[in-house]
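[job 0412] stage=fold_complex status=start
inputs:
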Amino acid sequence: MDKPVKPDLNFAKEIIKAGGESLKKCYQCSTCTVVCPLSPDKAPFPRKEMLYAQWGIKEKLFQNPDIWLCHHCGDCTAYCPRGAKPGEVLGAVRKLMIQNYSPPSFLAKWVSDPKYLLLIFLIPLLLFLGEMAILGYFSGTEIPRGENGEISYVAFLPAVPWIDVPFMALAAFAIICFYNGVKRYWLDLASVAEVKRKDIYGCIYETIKDVLLHKKFQLCGVNKGRYTAHILVLYAFIGLAITTGIAAFYEWVLRWESPYPQTNIVKIIGNISGIALIIGMFLVIVNRSKNAVKQGMGSYFDWLLITIIAGVGVTGFLAEILRLAEAETLGYASYIAHLVFVFALFAYAPHSKMAHMVYRATAMVFAKASLREEAIKQEEAA
Amino acid sequence: MEKKIGLYICKGCGIGEAVDVEKIQNIGKNALRVPVVQVHDVFCSREGIDLIKKDIAEQGVNSIVIAGCSPRVKTYEFSFPGCFVERVPLRELAVWTIETPEEKQLAAEDYIKMGVIKAQKGEIPEPYIIETVKSILVVGGGISGMTAATEAAKAGYDVVLVEKESELGGFARKLYKRVPTDDYTKGVLGDVNLEPLINEVTSNPKIKVYTSSKIEKIDGQPGDFDVTISKNGSTETIKIGAIIQATGWKPYDAKKLTKKYGYGKFKDVVTNFEFEELAKKNKGVIKRPSDERVVKTVLFVQCAGQRDPEHIPYCSGMCCATTLKQARYVTDGNSDATAMVIYKDIRTPGKLEYYYKEAQNTPGVMLAKGEVTGIREEYDKLVVTVEDSLLGDKAEIEAEMVVLATGMVPTTKEPQDYLIGLAEAAAKGDEAKAKYIETTKKPEFILNLGYRQGPELPFLEGGFGFVDSNFICFQYETRRTGIYAVGPVRQPMNMTEAQEDAKGAALKAIQCVEHVAKGIAVHPRAWDTSFPEPNLTKCTACKRCTEECPFGAIDEDEKGVPFYKPNRCRRCGTCMGACPERIVSFKDYSVDMIGTMLKNVSVPSEDDRPRIIVLCCENDAFPATETAALHRLKLDPALRFIQLRCLGSMNLVWIADALSKGVDGMLLLGCKFGENYQCHFAKGSELAKYRLGKVQETLDRLQLESDRVQMYEVAIDEYWRIPSIIDEFMEKIRQIGPNPFKGF
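[job 0412] stage=fold_complex status=done
writing structure:
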């Protein structure tokens, strides 16, 4: 016997506010579940999630890996006969989950409400302008140049302490938030379904393989372009992470300060990744606009992350080009903008849509660990 | 007036090429002794019609046999007032469906022969005209009844409205709000606002209202009913032309739902009707009965005791919209209140779909498909168990109050149940009958008809107490001519549907009074001036006609001699088919006429050329056959089709007549009967099947195989089945072998 169902009107209203305003139109016909390319035959979604959402049954929604197993292809939304947009509703539920699991909650609020848009960017901007003020750039001190007299962002804001200290602090903060959130989420998931597999690392390995191959995205029907766009962005991020790693190696181990020549491996990987990121983000935006009618435009929450990542890519490239072009003021401005976007990306990662990579991965690992599909198949066979 | 027959053979549509018209002409002139025989290339042309008209004017032809196309086409062209007209469908039955030229010719000759015989035997009917009144009685003053009354009055007819309560309004009077009839976006709760309709009824000088009144007795026939109304002990008898029964429904007895839903056991489990009363009492504030607390969580159980074989197996059609309305009583003005609805299906047809959508969009209205399997009380809450839902395999939901959507039971159910019980007891003998009357409480009867077949409108077997109306073809028409059932007494429906229904029934009542005034059948043979004329001197008072008449048109005196009430009659001829003495005839349709026709069909002497007579319903099976012909489907040339008004008019003597003449088999094509019957005359095909069961005896006496006579049910759209039915039948006949009487 299940626990008594407690419909929660307020939570239902929260979902509606969070971008699920079409939620109430669902009449449980199950078209969504049938057309969903990701929903397994024996453990289907998102029909039941739509009903839980209408009734505001928070536990059933949150303690359920299916919410994250949805990759928001939008096929359900495209085929829904009532315009209930299940894809959008699940997106709204995911947003509420991120808010629920990632502390502190005020940050979650900032990234989901346009009211705080300015504040989000104002904080890093003030931070970096402050650093510039400390260095005296606003009081007449000349901005130092590189060894050969060229523009050098390292000379402008030396990595230690002006870059590395705030960003390492941010990274640590993000990791703590994620650790906390993932732990709570895992415990919630495990309170409903049993972890059956012992080799959690095996599950993690399989999940990473799935993510790298982007297997699930390939299945999406309505938004076919999404696979290319998302995989480009993913590999761009991996490339940029490698770039950062090599750069850190140069700086900390080899004590070789940037800028590096364009022919150096770090620049090659960095530039290619940067281009991939910009193309990927361009495709993301094009796809979203193209499919807006069929699968929904997405919420503010989505668009904030799109803006931040696109901003990171564009300002990064702009800073590099302007540096090479020796355009002083514009170059420095772009570099500061770039830092602001990168800050936003890291600082709000546990609360913004960026958190999807962690929670979705967690849900995927859990689904494998709990033998979600296999268990049902065995039950059927028995 | 002396009969003069004219035979007109059309050569159009390929008839001229397919058959030897000259030979037929000679047969007409010489063998059949038809005084006027004409042939024309296209009789439906102006020239052809003028030719016939000229014969009528100059030669005094008054019985016209047109051999050409189906009687269902060219009806405007071939209408000759004052003449008996018989159309022989040579084109369909001889030319299109038969393959070989010899067989085409033989069939054409047979059909012409039968057509001429029909003209020889038939007379032009004289209408049955008595003094009639045109006023309309409406029984029941609810939404349906008041609407029917105002509609009939608006059309200029006097109306008498009888209501048993002291006020008009019926069930609508008990409602707090109603589902609005206009745009739902302007508000989901409409005012009931009965006053304008009540005022319209009471202020209309053409409508006379009797409240707190009952019908004590109805005698007579359409156009000439004697209705006795009783009010406060005094009675009054008035003449009425037609009657509309709009007595509506009663809620299903929720006490029968105690076991399942705890109704009666838990105070806060109420029916949707009680919930409506609660809302009305407190002007929309919902206070639960147990402690008068204003509730915030209410759970509605849809189909409570409905679509449930243990209670009422049908859907009442109005509860879904009613619940969506009542859910708003809970949520409107209470932003934190929830109305949960557990349903089997939401049934909101037509425009109501928008009402459903509006309700869905309200956050506080939570809907889920599921099956409520139990309700229990815990502290001050009710816990409802829901199975088969997405909320969980066996979910438990807490609520402060539970509303059961119980359904509609027609007011006719109680009298019917009593009458069924009485009939069953009577079948066991006089003693059992007397005991039944003594021990069973007699419910209040509604119409108290002075008809031999019973005091109330007939019901459909398996129809759950609703009045039998031919809902496929003729809604409102009950099996009592001139009495029309309207609204939820006929079929479950909501207020808007009942109002629409009332308009239809008012028109039917008007059709009735107008037709009987002219001596025409009311419906479905709404052109027919013939009526049954029994030769009572030969009547043996066997009561078959009085029992079998589907419309209760025949009463009987103490000795059992039938007493025909022609205005109640629909002219189907069931009495003609039933009568073992063959004394019932119409001017243009009789046992002798059809008997002579089939006795004159050619019977080939060769053993491998069977001859089959097909007796065919002219409303469904015959048009289906013609459609088969139109599609050029080929039929066995052994067949000869004879159209009957209804298979119910089939007299068993025809089977004996045909088989003794050497015909190898008889095929009866009638309408679907039973629960979803399609028979225009409700019982005709069923009675034919019943009589066929008895034909065994006759065939045995003739030492013939009973399989030679078979009946099939065919719908008008099933033309494609005709060839396969016939092939199957022919197969059987060929297996049995030729009729031993052949050649005698």
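[job 0412] summary: The interface with chain B takes residues 1-7, 9-10, 12-13, 16, 24-28, 47-48, 51-52, 54-55, 57, 82 of chain A (CB under 8 Å).
[job 0412] exit 0
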